[in-house]
Each structure stands twice: as C-alpha cells, then as structure tokens.
Fold:
Amino acid sequence: MGSAARMMERPASVGNRLLATLPSKDLALLAPHLQKVSLEQDAVVIRAGDRRDHVSFPHSGAISFMLGLPKGETIATAVIGREGAIGALSVLGPSFLSSVTAVVRVSGIASQISVSRFHAAYMASGAIRHMVEAHTRSILMQFQHVSACNGLHSVEARMARWLLHLHDRTEGNSILSLTQETLSQLLGVRRTTVTQVIAKLRALGAIKSVRRGLVEIDRARLEEATCECYDIIRRATDRIVPDDAFGFQQAAQMRTSREV
Structure:
C-alpha cells in the first residue's frame, strides 16, 4: 500500500465482513498471509491506471473511490468500509488496472495480502470466489445508484448522503474530520457551492458546526435531509454482504446448489 499503510502485527481476529463470510477452511488459505496495516486519513491507497500489488480488507475506516476527469475535476463514485475490499478485482488478470483512485477518508485498519497469494487462494476456493462475486455486485450496485443520485437529486441531498455513508463507518462518532476541499472532491462541485450547501444543512439542523476541518452532524436530521438513495444503498449492501456470516454462507450454498 506504500504511503497509505504502515505494517503492523498479523490480524488476531476477523473484522472485515467479507472475510467473516468465509468458512474456516477457506479463510485458512488467506489467514497465514494477511498482515494488518493502518489506513491514514487522506492517504491514496491506489491511483487510477495503477496495477494492484495487494488486496486489502478494511476492518474500520472508510475509503472513497474517486473518478478523475481530464480537466482536473473529481467526483466520488462509491465509499467502502469493513463490508468491502480494495483490489479484489485483481483476480481478473495482470492486465487489469484500477479505473479509480482510492482515498482514505476515515482512518482505520485493514488486512492486506499480496495479489499473487490472493489469486492462488481464489483459484482454490469456491467460497472465496463467491466472496469476490458478492463484493463486485455490491460495488456495481453502489456505482449505479450514485450515478442516478448525481443526476436526479440536489447537492444538499447528495452531501447528506455522503456524510451518512461516512458516519456509518466511524463507529458512531458525530464529528467527522472533513475539509471543505474533501467535500468538494466527493461532490464534484466548487468550494463556494460546498459553503452554500453547508449553510443550508446548518439551517436545517443537520450540521451543527463546521470548524477547522471538523463537521459535527445531527444524524436524525441528516437522514431527513438526504434522498432515498442513502437507504437504498445501505439496505442493498447489507443484503449482498450481510453483517451475519451465517446468512451469507446460506445464500452462497444456495447459489452453489443451483449451479450444480
């Protein structure tokens, strides 16, 4: 992960929802090679056009996928935390390059494994293949709904949605460490627009205060200010990658039986 991560001890427990879905024998293919790393806020995990060296499974924190345009504009296309992975699509082959830049928005930790070792485990385990399939469906779902939201809903509703997505991954902390520049990048708008939107959300009571890169939110009022896309994305993610390993494994077994 380069500058985005600092090597730590091997993981003592499974904190990532994708890894938690794996039966013990399949997790054992990965566990000896997983290393815990720290995810530092604002660090770039991977840049668009780069080839992945590692696959990372966040245990905490939040990472946004940023799409950049030729003139320098950026916009967020998805955000993931412990329900997802970075680099899992490297199983598509060595020529697969990242189409987005992944940036840490909320600091945390992750388990990291080399692409070569992950690919070997992927080829040896149907459960790991189902895990990658679930992650892929989850990300594609988010891409689609975020694209629709960007075209149909107000900037205020979109900002509220991103703040809620990030808050979901902060373990309940009502103060988010976000600069106006970061919010501008996530929304794909000018900083002057961000200032106006923050003022509107403050008037609604959804944002309590903004100071020195810290945004204090009122969760209940922020939910009132957002659009239906937030709830759709959250519920769909939980359905595809439940926070319940047993439920996920039952669904995987049903898919396997249908394939047979």
In short: The longest strand covers residues 62-68. The chain has a mean pLDDT of 89. The domain at 154-226 is CATH 1.10.10.10 (Arc Repressor Mutant, subunit A).
